Structure formats: structure tokens, C-alpha cells
Amino acid sequence: MNIVCLDMEGVLTPEIWIAFSEASGIPELRRTTRDEPDYDKLMRWRIGILREHGLGLREIQATIAKVDPLPGAKEFLDELRSITQVVVLSDTFEQFAKPLMKKLGWPSIFCNTLEVAEDGEITGFKMRCEHSKLTSVKALQSMGFDTIAAGDSYNDLDMIKASKYGFLFRSTEKIKADHPELPAFEEFDEFLAAIKAVL
Fold first, then answer.
1. Measured distance CA(15)–CA(116) in Å, rounded
2. pTM, two decimal places
3. How far is it, in rounded angstroms, from Cα 153 to Cα 150?
């Protein structure tokens, strides 16, 4: 039995931190897991910048409310879910993902949670488990699933490589060049066809 494991940001939705960087006028917040492989380091750095600027969860959620899934993402997901099991594996946070999951028709998502003070300041974050994407893929495999994984960033590579089939979707030129063994796609229709071909 197959299950498809998809990254969220960059694959199904725009990058939340890039959208917030543009909305807040803070260019440093454009940095994502495409640029920084160490997620813990990246998040601590982001929280420091938010603190410097007096910004918190409310401001980020106001930006997310205006963000839509990538064009074609919901249709892609709807068709994929009609033929196989799908789970979104993301390093994002419940407080960010929920409005986007609603717009995508409520697919299953495994993600993390933010620690937020009463005044809305983001004080920390709690990861669901260490190496959450790889750990989730291995857990699914231990339950008898063949995993098919896809993502766009450094933090997706472990789950992609550990899966029976793995793909890059809308990744960077550097990641694609560093991993020529991974089929890479830019459009949902060709990506869907590639997944169907291995199901």
C-alpha cells in the first residue's frame, strides 16, 4: 500500500516566511530551509528578528489569512487523494498551517507547534519529534506503507531519499544540481503523472 508524503511550503503553498517578509518589510525573514539546512538554527534566528521588531503571532496570522495555495495545488491534491493516501509532512506550525489546510480541503498534516505568550509574542517552538519528516516516513514504512515523498528544500531530502520513490518539486537550481538522481518537476500536471506512474 502506498502513501504520498508531501512538503507544504513551496510545494502546495507559498513560503509563509517570504510572504511575511514582504508584508512586514523585513528582508532578512526571506531566509528559508532552501537557504539554511539547520531548521533549529533558522527558527531561533527568526524568533530573534520578530522580537527585535516587536512582531508576533497575530501579525503573521494576518499575513497568512491573505495567502492562497499555489495555483493548481488544490486540484492536484484532490485528484491525488482520490487515488491514494496522502499526508502533508511539514516543519511549519499548527498556528500557521490551519487556514491553509482549510483552503486545501483539510488534507492530513503532521507539523509542529509554536510556544506563544499571552501577548502574542512567539517565545519558542516545539518540534513534534527529531528529524520529523524522516521519522514520519520511517514510521509509515514500519506500518506497511511504501512511501512516495516530494519536497523542494534541504529539510525534505532525508524523507525523499528514504522513500521508495522520491521527487523534487519546484526546488532550487542548486539542490537539483546537487541531486541529479532525483526527478525534478515544476508543474503539477507532470508531477501528478510521475506519481501515478509509480503507484
1. 21
2. 0.93
3. 10
Cell numbers representing residue 94 in the block? 499548527
Residue among 90, 96, 101, 197 at smallest CA distance from 150: 90
- Among 9, 15, 152, 156, the one annotated catalytic: 9
Q: What is the largest CA-CA distance in the chain?
A: 50
Is 7 considered catalytic here?
A: yes
Is residue 38 annotated as a catalytic residue, yes or no? no
Cell of 72: 493548481
Report the 3 state secondary structure along 123-167: EEEECCCCCHHHHHHHHHHHCCCEEEEEECCHHHHHHHHHCCEEE
Which CATH number, 3.30.950.10, 3.30.450.40, 3.40.190.10, 3.40.50.1000, labels domain 2-14+69-198? 3.40.50.1000
pLDDT tens readout for residues 95-134: 999 999 999 999 999 999 999 999 999 999 999 998 999 9
CA 140 to CA 149: how far, in whole Å?
12
Pick the catalytic residue from 7, 15, 91, 152. 7
CA distance 28 to 18: 9
